[in-house]
Amino acid sequence: MQKTGALFLFLLSTSLAACSSQLYDALPTRDAAYAIMPPIDRAVVPKQYQIAPGDIVSLSVFGEPDLTLEKLPVDDAGFIQVPLIGAVRVASLTPAEASTQIAARLGAQFLRNPDVTLNVIEQTGQMVTVEGQVAKAGAYPVDGQTTLLGAIALAQSPTRIAKLDEVVIFRTINSQRMAARFDLSRVRAGRDPDPQILGGDVVVVGFSQAKSIYRDVLVAAPLFNVFTRF
User: Over 118-140, what HEC string results?
Assistant: First the structure.
């Protein structure tokens, strides 16, 4: 019985470790990853504020008091509700870009050459979301100098079963969702540069199935008497 239990645990651990997640293998890494998400020494500073979910905006259409609204919330999906035209996605746009988009839609159906002004009156602040194998997942404030290592530190470091070569940053660039994979152990050692983190990024720290199984085997060992002499 002891031999059977030990053999079962051994086969389980080796087979599952061999099938460790390949979910992110197709994502760009190394130079290709840094081309999408530059390191901090090539920090990207947005020239203008980009509207984010949770912001409050004001909308003014010259000569149209019914279309002038003092407070419009940007919902979690990045949309505002504009009279006559309905939902308009404004997240990741500058106020000027959002104004132009709304004017184009109003002008296409309802008004002639509308003069639209959209302003951000309340900002939610720039946040990064850190998920996966970290001690304290959550959303944290960032500024233009926040890096990947800094974001991980805000989440109180990776767990013992984190897969450090499978740390993925998700970012919206030109309205497209992009992702790149980084090796946190190389960044920590100074072998790879530390990528800049921007507001709206999502960082996911991978899960090491092999480490998890090894830990579970150690926990279960006394129960199955794995380490008794054969």
Answer: EEEEECCCCEEEEEECECCCEEE
Asked, for residue 168, whether it belongs to a domain, the answer is: yes
108 vs 116: CA distance, rounded Å = 14
Nearest to 179 by CA among 144, 206, 142: 206
d(CA 193, CA 207): 22
β partners of residue 195: 39
Contact 90, 51 (CB under 8 A): yes
pLDDT band at 9 (very low <50, low <70, confident <90, very high): very low
List pLDDT tens digits, range 174-201. Answer: 778 899 999 999 999 999 999 999 888 9
Domain hosting 95: range is: 56-122
Residues 1 and 96 in one domain: no
Domain co-membership, 41 together with 137: yes
Q: Are residues 132 and 192 in the same domain?
A: yes
